[in-house]
Amino acid sequence: MTDMTEQNAAMKPPVAKREPQRREFHGDIFEDDYEWMRNKESAEVQDYVAAQNKYCEARMSHLAGLRHTLFEELKAHVEETDMSVPTRINDYWYFTRTQQGKQYGVQCRMPVRGADDWDPPVVDPQGAPGSMPGEQVVFDANVESEGHDFFRLGGMDLSHDGRWVLYGVDVSGDERYDFRIRDLDATLEHGRPVELPELFAGIGGACFTPDGKWVFWTEVDDSWRPCAIWRHQVGTPVESDVCVYREADERFWVGAGISFDERSIVIGTGSKTSTEVLMLPVATPEGEFQAFIPRKEDVEYDVSFACFEGAGENGEDVPLAVVYHNANNPNFEIDVIDMRAHKPPYRLGEGVCVAAGSPYGCERGDMGRPITEAYFNPLNPAILQGAHGLGIEGIALHRYFVTLSYRSDGQPHVAYTTKQAAAADFLAGRPWRFTELLPPPLENDWDMVAADRSDSTGDHGERLWTDDTAADAGYSGTEGGAADDSVAVPQDHTSSFDGASDDHLPGETRRLYSIGTGGNPSYDAPRMRYSFASYTRPGELHEIDPATGRDTLLKRATVLGDFDPRDYMERRVWITARDGERIPVSLVWRRDFPSQDSPMFITGYGAYEISSDPGFSVARLSMLDRGVLYAVPHIRGGGELGRAWYEQGRRLNKKHTFEDFVDATRALQTAHLADPRRTVANGGSAGGLLMGAVANMAPECFAGIEADVPFVDALTSILNPDLPLTVTEWDEWGDPLHDPRVYEYMKSYTPYENVPVPVVESAADAAEIEDATGATAVAEAVSASKNAADFPRIFITTSMNDTRVLYVEPLKWLARLQSAGVDAVAKIEVEAGHGGLSGRYKQWEEVSYENAWCLAVMHITR
């Protein structure tokens, strides 16, 4: 065979053999030609994977230069040698160092300078791990990963005195971790740390008791379900461990941990819709766990314990149980129980309600009212009154402050109050006086709203599209509760909304940000840390004194080069879906590129009540700097607007997820913001199912589809209760095994069953199709529209060790797509799992690989 012949052969996709297997449920018969690929260990499957990777390599070879350029651009923006801000845990300050050329971070620590030391030490970020006086390396993943193609740290727990560390690693990507116990106070002669002989192999997770004398670890069954909790006494054989809890209901997962006040060992068990908490005092680790409140179907709750120090009538502490639940309110409420009143057991709904979410639009709420209608509740703090799509997400009580997390207007929010004020409000029986935490604005930024501006657009006159388009539309208006800066668009597809709760507050930031109170592991810390980031503003870590409101910047993520966040714009618009629901869409673009028929990268998820919140990405800059419009439709099935938003995009409402994404895409294209010939969609896992579904529903909207670890053979998987995750997934997707309606509904949208038919234009085509797929397919193709010819190009990523979406799903989908004549390629990782490759440089190479394909589909090749 000549070199040219070999090259031409490499540019044709491998032909997968057809070996029909019959799948019959509820009177429906489906012939699955590629189910044989489920045998991962077979030589045929391994050869097929190798052939597909070779084909992908050949198809992608012309993008090598662009991939290299994107990788170098990403790398040039990153401070490769850096460190995190030290966080105090007990008697040490912990921080992570990254070093140029190293794949993984290095965990380090330094001892505190005294009991009242709450100011992080000054550490040289350019120094080597262990270079500062008193600095100790706790865990160096670069050393631990030697000899492994894949490496992931799966958890780390420390004894209270800091001597013992319990850690788990995964070296294959299958999310089964081997845990060991290391002595941080001792090393062997050759410098290796001293480890105890215990090995907890292939488990889901583990935790220490504070004294480091007991380990509680999670067993994983053959379906990868965390199913049981075992007790281990440190220093004894693992074989003598005792099972303290086993979950019989296959819908439930279990896990163990230590309560925030370190007084209780906690077992949490839960399905997608129900939870239960069992507790045991750490003082009696060999005792029996007791349920705080017995489980109830379709009720989720969590509990924590705290106190109001010295708030009693005689200066005594007031012990509290803080219960987070949805027994009475589908969008959750927080009840605080004064434990002086009576001893356990308690019931859900007991105590004083501190915050309650909006029941509007929820299945177990008020379905007759719109999700986005303003919600008022006399029990709620003033800052929650009139919120839209209000969902309560949690509360944390520390010694000096209290934080409240919630969602409103489709975005995350945080509020705070002092512990003293909370105690006074609680004992007086009035709503708590929270203050909303707003990120400080960037100096001279476009998101600063001047007090004397009448139009309050905040964008210095920039528009999302031309005035001619607006005039043609003849529409201008605002969405309820939004700022008066709406943009006219054709056919009233969208209206503008920039995410701020009140645009008339001078100096308020109006970027689309995410905000959270991570980095507060200590109950005794006098100040509260919080972090935030937007699509265009790099992450910042701040510390605020709740008593004075003084805000201190601890660290801003460094973006090297000529990056300036003021060069980029971000806005929230709302489009009208086909059923009349209003869907929020986040848009990001570079200010000096007009958003007019732009190439567009549009991405979504829309499942499991997971919200696609704003976040900064260095890799995204390369797209924005090339004029790409970045769009995120916050489609139903996610949690952006609370529980009702989730309920409207799951089970027998799942198609809303796909329709919302298509309708958002079409609206942006109709408004001439984006060009359908240069639009690429992206989604992963459940978002990969979304990608397959929208490609089938509206192929004309997309030039390309990138589907990462896609859940595209969902019906086959959900029908098999022996596969990983299946039974737990019935709460999300429905149960097609026992319910014919669910079966029929899922079959109507799952990508694998709905791929386009092959194109038949000639007798030669018919002969080729018959060779590959059989005579029946030829007849179907002749009578069907030639939709395969108009199908978008497909790029698939998957991993052979993925335990969440098995590799066989995208592999089968790929075979059907290619047999139909769709231009589809797949990059298949042999040593990785659901999260892809490990190591930061490998991940940068991976995202550069994927983005190069996306840009090429948009006709951007440099």
TrEMBL record:
Region feature (Disordered): 1-24, 470-503
UniProt GO BP: proteolysis
Keywords attached to this entry: Hydrolase, Protease, Serine protease
Pfam families to which the protein is assigned, alphabetical: Peptidase_S9, Peptidase_S9_N
Keyword Zinc attributed: no
A GO term, aspect molecular function: serine-type endopeptidase activity
SUPFAM superfamilies: alpha/beta-Hydrolases, Peptidase/esterase 'gauge' domain
Residue ranges occupied by any Peptidase S9 prolyl oligopeptidase catalytic domain in the UniProt entry: 616-858
Similarity comment: family membership: Belongs to the peptidase S9A family.
UniProt-recorded name of the protein: Protease II
Native source organism of the sequence: Bifidobacterium imperatoris
